[in-house]
């Protein structure tokens, strides 16, 4: 039997602005990436999201992003590796404070948006982020784009590293995600999304936009909690994975 983690970006509401159906979607994921206040989220949202994740038995990770609320952390910024390191340490620390009040351990760290994509291609930034995670705690799991510079950096340091794939994104021939600036970046057809996920988990391959098969490793699947049909898709993907003999479980609970 194959096994895979399902992760979702959560805690991305801010002040009076609510994003996503957190309480419901937590019933269908195994890992939650909680925004730490830079790209979205605020202290109250962080605490409430931590509380809900624990109540649903969902493992918790920090979701550090660039300091860009207006752009939701999806616009690239010119930062040095040291600045990237500092941002990640700072944001992990913010979430860790709330976890401590619930006596809960952090499972993982997954960079957000532009920071994630920059680290996927920039070896120096990837090394700085991996080092930040390692320095906070070597027991943390680093989530990164499958086969990217970030996963390579994590493995080089000796971190447990989860190779991430995306249910609702298209891929390029080099294994990178299609830029959101392109019209074909997102997969909106539910059947197409699930078929892509099953192929990635069971075969270790994805068909790129150039119609070539790209090899990858699928440890964790990202589903986005802010989509119009996010909740329905979360339910459906669980059903389809079960039918394809794929066990859904948080990485820290995986059987050897």
From TrEMBL:
Top-level taxon of origin: Bacteria
The question of whether Zinc-finger is a record keyword is answered with no
Could you list this entry's UniProt keywords, alphabetically sorted.
ATP-binding, Hydrolase, Nucleotide-binding
E.C. code: 3.5.2.9
Pfam families attached here? LamB_YcsF
Q: Which reaction does it catalyse?
A: 5-oxo-L-proline + ATP + 2 H2O = L-glutamate + ADP + phosphate + H(+)
Could you confirm whether the keyword ATP-binding appears in this record?
A: yes
User: What is any one GO biological process for this UniProt entry?
Assistant: carbohydrate metabolic process
A GO term, aspect molecular function: ATP binding
Q: How does it associate, per the subunit comment?
A: Forms a complex composed of PxpA, PxpB and PxpC.
The record's annotation in NCBIfam families points to:
PRK05406.1-3 (NF003814), PRK05406.1-5 (NF003816)
Function (record text): Catalyzes the cleavage of 5-oxoproline to form L-glutamate coupled to the hydrolysis of ATP to ADP and inorganic phosphate.
Instruction: Return the PANTHER family for the record.
Output: 5-OXOPROLINASE SUBUNIT A, UNCHARACTERIZED PROTEIN YBGL-RELATED
The family annotation for this protein states: Belongs to the LamB/PxpA family.
**Could you tell me what this protein is called?**
5-oxoprolinase subunit A
Q: Which organism is it from?
A: Cytobacillus depressus
